Predict the structure.
Amino acid sequence: MLVTLEGLDGSGKTTVWEALRDTYSDAVFTREPTDDSWYGEAVNRAIGDDDADPLATLFLFTADHADHLSRVVRPALDAGELVISDRYSDSRYAYQGASLRDSDLKRPMEYIMGIHAAFTRPPDKTIYLDVDPETAAARSGSTNKFEQAAYLAEVRANYERLIEAEPERFIRIDATQSPEEVLDAVEAALDDILADA
Ligand SMILES: Nc1ncnc2c1ncn2[C@@H]1O[C@H](COP(=O)(O)OP(=O)(O)O)[C@@H](O)[C@H]1O
Ligand SMILES: Cc1cn([C@H]2C[C@H](O)[C@@H](COP(=O)(O)OP(=O)(O)O)O2)c(=O)[nH]c1=O
């Protein structure tokens, strides 16, 4: 089973993901962008480059996803493991959907979903850590171009569209709560997911 964690920068995904390692020690913990491949390195260069072309950046993130799928996600799923990924394809739909808003693409989010549809493995469940853009930008320190409140407001609107389209896949958690409350809510959601599996 594939469970993904999604949300704005600063929503607390990484904090939760790290804590889950103790409670779900048998699961495979992974993330996008990857941190153990040259594809991930290329993505991180694009994140740090304010002049990086948004369409080129989409394809770098998508290349990293393809490698992540074939090298980590599919083998683990084939072996019957529970895979928990800190960010996954919805991040592309929401973030690059926003950064390509003013491009020549008519419907950027639909275009990006179309690119993925032919090869990706959709998540079984997605835990969405919901936080307002101002809190997100303040918590993340606004250190890169993706962490500005105005941009994050557009990203959040895209996540809302994704949730509206697939309400049964998403579990929304109020991420403005304390870290302990957020973790308790995520663990309760995961327990329910695994009980239903
Ligand atoms: N529920 C929370 N309340 C307040 N601060 C939080 C909470 N969760 C995480 N943080 C803090 O916010 C910052 C970003 O958290 P992080 O887990 O890295 O978020 P993300 O991976 O979603 O960007 C960190 O400094 C972290 O300690
Ligand atoms: C996976 C992914 C991340 N991103 C962005 C979100 C983050 O601003 C940045 C790095 O992701 P990440 O390291 O997960 O940042 P954080 O822990 O702060 O949430 O890359 C995309 O724009 N598209 C993507 O497909």
